[in-house]
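I am going through a labmate's work and have reached the protein record below. What it holds is a sequence and that sequence's fold in token form. Please read both lines and tell me whether the tokens look consistent with the sequence. Do not assume that whoever made the record got everything right. Thanks in advance; the entry in question is below.
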Amino acid sequence: MQGRALTVFRDLPRRFPGRGRAPGDQPRCVRYDRFPGATRGGWCSEARDDPTTGLVAWPDFFACLPSILHLTLRGGVGVGLAIGDVDNLKSYVEGRRAVDAQSFGHLAGNAFMGRLGTISRGWLSAADLPLACLATFGGDEIVVVAATNDSAAFAHSVGELRDQLCAGLPRTVSFSTATIQASEIPALTVGTHWWREFAVHTIGAVERSLFDGKEARRAGADVPLGFVVDAVHGQRL
């Protein structure tokens, strides 16, 4: 992203209201900040991070997401959203017992997700995404959100993350991705509730596209493991 796009990014808010505390309250938990981090440009910088993956913990991410969408899109910049899900993680963690009797089930799953978090944070630190963050979603899913006006470039970046995860993990990870453009948002929205509902709708649409692809593969369709699909047009990238 060049020129005016970067200038616009500099004007966007870096911090967003989330799960607040009353004045004088003590922090609810210890943070487990990793390096590299799971955020770029200050997004979700005060949110709790997940102790297993080092990514932004889902409750805090979801509390911040409506404000991220609202302030970024109203600032004239699009928002890219991608959800990744590990392929066949259950069979992997169950099969680990034959290799290491002390590391199977949840222990193996935690080790796997810890490695996924490390690879993902390394990818983000080098990605051309000046405003972005990575969050957990469910037990074996990852969410990527970034400010971008270029849906093709965002999808390409997600493809690079997919490649790194597939190369560095014993299971592939499939993704669905979408970019919401500022021009798609109605001129008039009432209150914060609209943005919360929009956040739920957007996440739901992207995840539905992801699992439609997985269901099609289970039904015998020619869908590879580790796919990246465009949630808007239903096309594999």
Summary: The first helix runs from residue 4 to 11.
